[in-house]
Structures are given as C-alpha cells and as structure tokens.
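Q: What would this chain look like folded?
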Amino acid sequence: MSDESPANVLFVVMDTVRKDHLTTYGYERPTTPGLESFSEESTVFDQAVAPAPWTLPVHASMFTGMYPSRHGADQETPYLDNVTTLAETLSTAGYDTACYSSNAWITPYTHLTDGFDDQNNFFEVMPGEFLSGPLAKAWKTLNDNERLRAVADKLVSLGNTAHEYLADGEGADSKTPAVIDQTIEFIEESDRSFAFINLMDAHLPYHPPKEYKEQFAPGVDSTEVCQNSKEYNSGARDITDGEWEDIRGLYDAEIAHIDDQLTRLFDWLKETDRWDDTMVVVCSDHGELHGEHDIYGHEFCLYDPLINVPLMVKHPELGTGRRDDQVELVDLYHTVLDALDVEGGEPASSGEDVVALDRTRSLLSSSYREFADVDSPDPGQQGSPDGEYAFVEYSRPIVELKQLEEKAKAAGITLPEDSRFYSRMRAARRPDAKYVRIDRIPNEAYRLDEDPGEVTNLAGKGDEKIEAAEQALARFEVAAGGAWTGADDVEVTDDALDDMDDTTQERLRDLGYME
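A: My prediction, written as structure tokens:
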C-alpha cells in the first residue's frame, strides 16, 4: 500500500438489497441518487458474489476471510466458535472498532461482534439483558445439543417474529437514523477507526417512513400486503401481480430511506474533512426474491438476485469506474487488512483459527485473484486457481423451515421431503455460467450470459461452460471436505422443550414461543 492509503475504514452492509433495484446498477426508479453520486467517486463492481444467501454466514465470512464450511456459522450452528475476527485483529493493531446494526443475527451471542470495542444492536424488542443473561451464556450449549437446538432456534427467530409483527414506520426499521448518529459519534471520537454498520430497512417486513412510501408506493397499505414469505413459499397464500408490484414499491421505498441516511453520513465525512482519509465499502450481504422462481425472500435457492450483490469501494488505489471481473465478498476481509496495512494471522486466543492477509484476495493488490502460486490455498483458491470462479454454500435453514412447516400445516399442506426447502446447496459461479449441486432435488446449471433469468436448466446437457463450472465446484468440494451428497434428516421438532426447566420455559413464554 502507498503512504497515501486512508487511515480509516467505513464498512456498510445494506441488508437484503438486491443489485437491480439500485439506480447505480441501471434501475429505472430513482431509489439511490446518493449512491449514484458515491459511485462517481468509487469503483463499482458488477460481478460481486456473496458466499451464502443469508446474513449470518455472509457476515461471518466477511469477518473471518473464510468460506461458510470453514467458519461453521449457520442455522445448525448459529455462532462463530474458536475463530479470530477482523475486528479482533484490528483492535489488537491499535484501531478503534465499532459495530452498529439492527440485525438480530449480529449480536454477542453469535460472536459476530467479537473484537468490536463498541457495539449496539438497536433491536428494541431484543433487550440487552436477554443478550447478556443466562440464555445468552447457554447459547453454545443449546446449539451443541441435538435435542436442545430447537429451543435455540426459537430464541434466534425472536428477531424475525418481532420484526414481522412489531416493525412499522416508527419501529425497528427506523433504527437506521440512530445507527448513523452513533456511527458519526464514534468516528468523531476516533483517531484510527474501523466502523461497521448493517442497515436493515430493506429486510421484510417493509414499513417505510411516510415520505418514501408516498414516493415509491403511493396509496399502498403496508399492513395489507403479504409480509410473511413463509406463507407464500409454503403455498398457504397466493400473491397477485398487483400485490407484487405493491411489495416492490415498499421495498424500493426502504432502499431510498437507506440511501438518504447514507448520504447524510457521507456528507458529514466530507464536511469534517474525513472523507479523503476514509476507505468506504458499500455492499449488500444478499438480495431478495419477489416471486421469481416462485420464491419470496432469500431462502431455499442460490439464484443470482440473491448472490450477485452490489459492491462499491472508494479507495485511491482503485480509482473510479466500473469493473466486470468477478470478485467475492470473502475478499473484503483481506481488502480491509491491506488498506490498513495489517498482516493479521495471529489468533486472539490460543487455539483459535485465523486467516492472515492474502494479497491475492485483496481488491487493492496488483496480484488480485492470481491464485495459482498461493502456498496454502483455501478451498476457493483450490477450486479456481485462475481466480475466475466464486463459490457459494447454503446449509438448510432450520429456523425458516420450522416457520414454513407451521404455515403449511395451518393451511392443510404437507411439504414434500424431497424439495428445495430441505436441501443443502453449493454453487460455482462465473459471470457466464453457474453450477449448483443440491442434495435432495436435481442439480441446477445456467448459462448466465445467455439466460440471465436462470430459466433453462442445463445440468447434464453437455454444455462446455457448464461442465467447467461443475469441475470447479468438484475441486472446491474436495478441498472443503467433500460434497454434500447425503440428505439431512428432514425432521425439525420441538421435543427439546420437554427438557427445559421451569425458569427457561417461563422465559420462552415471555418471548412468545410457548403458550
């Protein structure tokens, strides 16, 4: 890095924001005028790929530099364990670190906030005493016990349930201004800083502030449209074309609110002469489906609207303009280390797994994605020595499955065991082709250059580019410990409740999970 490298990093995740709903990426509605201005000062990446289609494993990958199968954080093991995070490494190197978010997954009990000097979840329905109380301390024990894991699932889904029923224009979504306010306060008091923020507005349910709803969804009552993806995905509720249009309008309004608040933060950095000394990363952790492939939300698949995410980076080494080479969000871990000239690689505690700076994974490096000569390649580097492929992993979503099954049962519907709902998936993606291996239903493969909507499944059809993607995936799987070919047990039960003591059961009643 040069001596002119910024001394601070601002890392922004716009949760659940799909790329094609941003003005910067050609969307016809003016959802993001602020980010469009930001894009003129940054590099815009057209082919950025998330390592998973949902929050926990993606953030864990960005915070550790590891693929999900290595760091292990998913819904069956919903926490980081024995892993040193980016924040821990930067704190040790003398940087002030902070994490502000209203996402129920980015909390102390998942260990995603480990290493941050300051953190605030802002999720009012999940009080601090819950995060620091006996249940939080028992989090690992609950999840490591097969029978008790169902109780842990209920605790995690508190955020989803509360968000679904309690969020409105003055509720959880309106925490974004508070996140921005506290970020400003933190940066103002810091000399060298790493600030991470996650903005939840575009996550279901959509209840945007009035001024944005009037612009993008005039006349739409957000309490009348379907805000529960499990009702639709289970088959318990249909959604008309007109309702989809209303849903997308509310979604756009939420994105516009994010854009306005980010513009406020960026303007403050400029007004206080901090802009030039701050590297800014803006991305999404995953996108969202609004009926495409008959799916609502971001579960049960690896289609491009979920995993091909927006990414913009402002740094003098990158300059400005657009790039169409494929990059991975896993690379942002190394990019931040490189930007702050921190080598890393030292565990925060004895025995922890940690990744050192690898400049072949830094966006700022002249050797970016030249993996062929890496001494100790990770599974992605082994799967794609030429750096052309990105890899995605998806374990079955236990919490969503339980909610899906409940919606189906209430509607008299039986979900087939051999379906995408119970499937684990892995994918190898290049901008022209993708191959997805699935353990319960037929594999999927698409020529993205000819079929961007992923309509025609070419798995096993002899297409050369598809076969090359399958071979890359096979190499990745071998390096990651083997292919997911044996289907998991489909049962998701509440038997663990019988094992809990009276105090814990009472707490679950308080949280609304038992009657």
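Residues 163 and 290 are 19 Å apart (CA to CA).
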